[in-house]
Each structure stands twice: as structure tokens, then as C-alpha cells.
Design goal:
The protein is mainly alpha-helical. It contains one helix and no strands. The longest helix has about 120 residues.
């Protein structure tokens, strides 16, 4: 009888140990779930960082494109200014030719007046 009582006692201790092992396994599963959750958050953070980097690269590309367009606009403005200076030089040249023509007309008029004066004598 005593042996049977010892077997029952041993069986109870084995069952207690089994319950503790199950409890520990549950805690390990819980810890694993938390690790998986943390890993998912790390992946999400990395994804957001990549998205931010992608947007930063896109913004930088747009800034470079804007700067390129600004340089092109400045070059066109310089070209326009050069053409305006050329046109102004042509206008000045034309003005000088008009003044020279007017001087020739005045000289011709003076010769006509002189000829008329000679004819009238």
C-alpha cells in the first residue's frame, strides 16, 4: 500500500512538473509572438524609411530639374539681351545713315541755292 501511495505521489509530482513545462512553453510562445510583432514593426519602420528616402531622391531630382530649367532660362535671357544690343546697334547705325543722308540733302540744297544765286546774277 505504501508503494502505491509513493507511486501516486510520484505521479502527482510528474503531473505538476508537466504543468510547469506547459506553462513555460506558453511563456516561450508568448515571447516568440512578441519577437515576431517587434520584427514586423522593424520591417514597417524600414519600409517607411525607404519610402522617405525615395521621396527625398525624387525631390532632389525635381530640384535639379528646376535648377537646370533656371539655367536654361538665364541662357535664353542672355541671348535675348545680346539680340537687343545688336538691334540697338543697328538702330544707331540706321540713325547715323539718316543723319548722313540729311547732311547730303542739306549740302545739295546749299548747292541748289548757290546755283540759283549764280543764275540770278
Amino acid at each position: 500500500m505504501q508503494f502505491a501511495a509513493e507511486v501516486v505521489q510520484f505521479d502527482a509530482e510528474v503531473m505538476q512538473f508537466g504543468a510547469e513545462v506547459v506553462q513555460f512553453a506558453a511563456e516561450v510562445v508568448q515571447f516568440d509572438a512578441e519577437v515576431v510583432q517587434f520584427a514586423a514593426e522593424v520591417v514597417q519602420f524600414a519600409d517607411e524609411a525607404v519610402q522617405f528616402d525615395t521621396e527625398a531622391v525624387q525631390f532632389a531630382a525635381e530640384a535639379v530639374q528646376f535648377a537646370d530649367e533656371a539655367v536654361q532660362f538665364a541662357a535664353e535671357a542672355v541671348q535675348f539681351a545680346a539680340e537687343a544690343v545688336q538691334f540697338a546697334a543697328e538702330v544707331v547705325q540706321f540713325g547715323a545713315e539718316v543723319v548722313q543722308f540729311a547732311a547730303e540733302v542739306v549740302q545739295l540744297g546749299s548747292q541748289v541755292v548757290q546755283f540759283a544765286a549764280e543764275v540770278m546774277q
